[in-house]
TrEMBL record:
Coiled coil: none annotated. It comes from Acetohalobium arabaticum (strain ATCC 49924 / DSM 5501 / Z-7288). Residues 132-155 are annotated as: Disordered. It comes from the Bacteria. This is Peptidase S7 domain-containing protein. Residues 133-142 have a biased composition (Basic and acidic residues).
């Protein structure tokens, strides 16, 4: 490699001046994605472009001093911020959460379909504290912290936005709320007090309503506190419908940038919402495992950076995501 290293020192200024080039180094030539034993001058580019997209003087030469070059795509190189610290502007992929929630992931920047204002996308259970929409767990205007509370986010200094709207999370069962049922409960509990019955009687009814999504958006305190570039991935380039076998990638607060493949689509799954409450979710995407607790809210993309889903649940054996088209329709938002 000494000869290659000398070429790097001799030509790095000229090579770095080429369009799209961000670096140069020593390596081995790859042919059809397979590494060979042939030494090469490796030219690092943000993005591989077709020859017809470049002028002749912008092309990386195939050889320099009879030494092969090899062009390798590395993306835009930047300093990597800690995902669990305060970051301004904050990028999707970092810690965020409702002020009463531990922490989840800032999924993406979207915009309201009517006002076109930018909004922060994540899960209900990250930004709206598992709210059903008719409880006291969350309400519009609640503070959203970046980083989340678990990562030492504080209300007096780390508010990045306020809860704007969310899709309610329906449980399989819920407390019966009619006046008649409450009257019967009071009567039975009154009798229980007289006979020293040591339990409180509460009627629970089955809920026939299932879920399609676990999602919410928050309005940032100002546009300059957020960036639409997903950490270690980049900007969203569009939307695609999920397909079995599709390769996907995400950027999450806990496990960072990880990749997987879709195992199933149009799935109906039962998910634990709290320790003793479960919910049913329809039209879900199931992937091979590539997430950990705290990654909830991560945007799922294909390798062309098209959005596919929104991560919200998982286990050591699989990850579960909402279909992104359902998320956008439910929240009435679109990508920037």
């Amino acid at each position: 490699m000494e000869r290659i290293q000398s070429l790097v020192k001799k030509y790095y200024n000229q090579i770095l001046s080429l369009k799209n080039v961000v670096g140069v180094g020593c390596g081995y030539k790859e042919v059809d994605n397979t590494e060979t034993d042939d030494e090469a001058l490796v030219v690092l580019v943000e993005e591989k472009l077709d020859k017809d997209e470049l002028e002749s003087h912008e092309l990386v030469p195939e050889q320099i001093e009879n030494t092969d070059t090899d062009v390798v795509e590395v993306g835009e190189l930047e300093l990597l911020a800690s995902r669990m610290e305060r970051l301004r502007p904050a990028q999707p992929g970092v810690s965020i959460g409702h002020y009463r929630v531990s922490a989840g992931t800032f999924g993406a920047v979207v915009k309201d379909r009517q006002t076109k204002e930018p909004l922060i996308l994540s899960n209900n259970h990250v930004l709206a504290n598992l709210s059903t929409g008719h409880d006291d767990r969350a309400k519009k205007g609640d503070p959203i912290l970046q980083p989340g509370q678990h990562d030492k986010g504080e209300r007096d200094r780390d508010v990045i936005g306020h809860l704007e709207r969310f899709s309610p999370l329906h449980r399989k069962t819920e407390p019966a709320s009619s006046a008649v049922i409450q009257g019967v409960e009071n009567l039975l509990n009154g009798v229980g007090d007289v006979v020293k019955f040591p339990y409180l009687i509460k009627f629970i009814r089955k809920n026939k309503t299932s879920n399609l999504v676990d999602c919410a958006v928050a309005k940032p305190v100002s546009e300059d506190v957020i960036s639409d570039k997903i950490l270690e991935i980049g900007k969203v380039e569009g939307i695609k419908q999920p397909k079995v076998g599709m390769g996907v990638v995400k950027s999450g607060r806990t496990s960072g940038r990880t990749e997987s493949k879709i195992k199933a689509v149009h799935a109906t799954v039962e998910v634990s919402i709290t320790g003793n409450e479960k919910g049913v979710f329809n039209d879900q995407i199931i992937t091979k495992p590539f997430s950990k607790p705290g990654d909830s809210g991560s945007l799922i993309l294909d390798h062309d950076r098209s959005a596919v889903g929104l991560l919200f649940a998982g286990s050591e054996k699989s990850t579960v995501c909402n279909r992104i088209s359902n998320v956008l329709d439910e929240l009435k938002v679109e990508f920037i």
